[in-house]
Every structure is written in C-alpha cells, then in structure tokens.
Write a structure and sequence with these properties.
Largest sheet: none
Distance between the termini: 27 Å
Order of helices and strands: HHHHHHH
Structural class: mainly alpha
C-alpha cells in the first residue's frame, strides 16, 4: 500500500520537473496528489481488508465486516490509535518533495509564499498541505463511518 501511494507522488514529482509544463501551474499537482492520496489510501485499505477476510479468515471471514471497519479504523489513524496511523504518516512524509517543489515553482502561490522570510514559506505551505491531506482523509473516513451507521 505504501509503495503504491508513494509511487503516485513520485510520478507527480517527476512531472513537476519536466521543462515543457508551461501551460499548467504546478500547484495543480499538489491538489491532484492530495486527492489521489486520500482515495488510494481508503481504497487500498478496503481491498486489503477484504482480501484478508478471504485469504486469512480475518474479520470472521466476512467481507462485509471487513469493509465496515475500514472507515472507523482510518478515522482514528491520524491519532496513531492503530497500525494504519503508521501507514498514513509513512505515505504522507513522502509527499513533501512534491509539495515543496510544486509550491516553490507555483506562480499562483508565490504571493502567499513570499510573505514568509526566505524559503520558510515553501516549507510552511508544504507542511500545511500535508496536514490538509491528513485532515481530509480523517474527515472522509468519519463521514463514511457516520453514513454506515
């Protein structure tokens, strides 16, 4: 799971390094990465839980039970209340090179980044984006858990 999520981020990072991307602001890659990261993290957890139910008899061998615990588990992962927290932050840390690179190159974010001394603004915005990804995943997981009842 960590490999797949990180692969997407590294692929997007490579795109920000392409010299022929003049028509698009690199900040788009940050938003794209954040969205893909949340969707992949949820989807891959669901897949792994269902496969664990099938192959190893986890969750009483029930796919339904496996799927029903994905959202509550991920909703608490940001607080390290389960092993998924380790996976969450392992995937999030790898997003920093992409975020720093894209934010540094972004013309639309330059006015905001320049409010901070030297290169501090880029790092602050990258860390805020990482935090936004964690909060987004937690909120989506909470919403799914709430809808499940």
């Amino acid at each position: 799971m960590i490999f797949v999520v990180n692969y997407v981020s590294f692929f997007l990072f490579a795109l920000t390094q392409q010299p022929d991307r003049k028509h698009r602001d690199p900040a788009v890659f940050v938003l794209l990465d954040l969205s893909i990261r949340v969707v992949l993290f949820l989807s891959l957890h669901a897949l792994i839980y269902v496969l664990s139910a099938d192959w190893f008899g986890s969750f009483g061998g029930s796919r339904g039970t496996a799927l029903s615990v994905v959202a509550p588990t991920l909703a608490r992962s940001a607080f390290f209340e389960n092993i998924s927290g380790v996976y969450l932050y392992a995937t999030m840390v790898s997003s920093l090179p992409l975020y720093v690179s894209a934010i540094k190159q972004s013309a639309s974010l330059r006015p905001l980044v320049s409010l901070f001394p030297q290169k501090t603004g880029v790092v602050v915005f990258a860390l805020l984006t990482l935090l936004l990804a964690v909060v987004s995943l937690t909120l989506v997981a909470e919403l799914i858990a709430h809808l499940q009842g």
